[in-house]
Amino acid sequence: MGKSLIWNLTGTVGEIVNRITYPIQKDNGSVFLFDTSIATNNLGDFIIMRYCEDILSDIFPNYEFVRVSSHIVPSNEQENAAKSIKYKFVCGTNLLTSHIEEWWNWRLPDGIRRKFNYRNTILLGAGWKGYQDECSSYSRMVYHCVLNPNVIHSVRDSYTEQQLRTAGIRNVINTGCPTTWRLTPEFCKAIPVTKAANVVTTITDYRQDAVHDQLMLDILSRNYECVYLWIQGDKDEEYLSSLDLPDNLTKIPHSLDAYEEILNQGCIDYVGTRLHAGIFALNHQIRSIILAVDNRAIEMGMDTNLPVILRDNIENELEDLINTEFETKIQLQQENINRFLNQFRTKEAGNV
Hints:
By secondary structure, the protein is α/β, with parallel strands linked by helices.
């Protein structure tokens, strides 16, 4: 690390970044991957990583993946590896924020100096934590120093793109979440338009609303023969114990394999508050209705036409929608997806 960095952060972000001497990074046949599915009990992170890893394996078919958790500060050994590896990706999830100094789900070491060891990291479908104000000066500094200035970053929605652009990160495009990239018009034609006999649902322990969640369960109980409830988060079951469960409800264990088994049985819909459980169902060509509980589903719904309604509108909208024929027409940002992918597939990728 060069000694020219002004530690009191005087000057513009660009001026400060230009004072920094970074470690030399080479294409050594490895990809450094911030894995959101390590050290988490939220199986939504496993869904995100399944699709992100498929994408990266296609781009870098002969590369070794060095995985570290995005939820835990990397070890010294992992930090040393990050210094020298050219391609570093942080995948999916809502780990970007306007106030890194207060809260940041992407756990890098404390202090500006050590964060610089992760220079040239690339975003793949990352998103913003909630609706927030503009970035603090410290947050802008970190993003400018950590994110690769020479590639186009992929974010999951227009709101995240605008937040980064406002922070001065202009080499960013909205590709939608990588979990949606397979939902082409041709693929979606096989998704049923009418109600199935059974339904699988989810609740969200960290966005509890007992009134509306109970209403959802009651509506599902009277409109479907069997209601399956998948435990996506490890604390969902504790929250579930506070609700009045219908007689025709069966709990599905806290396992992605168990959830996929239910989806593969067919003759089932998805209606629930977990965004990526709904997207996973769509990827299995299951008719789905996602009940938005935060900015993620709201923004992605507006951008891509995901089948989303607000949880607050359950009483007025859900039952009618369940019993209405509708086509699933996901509007992919295909040009942006191709633009992101092609920068790694062309001969010029060696300069990325």
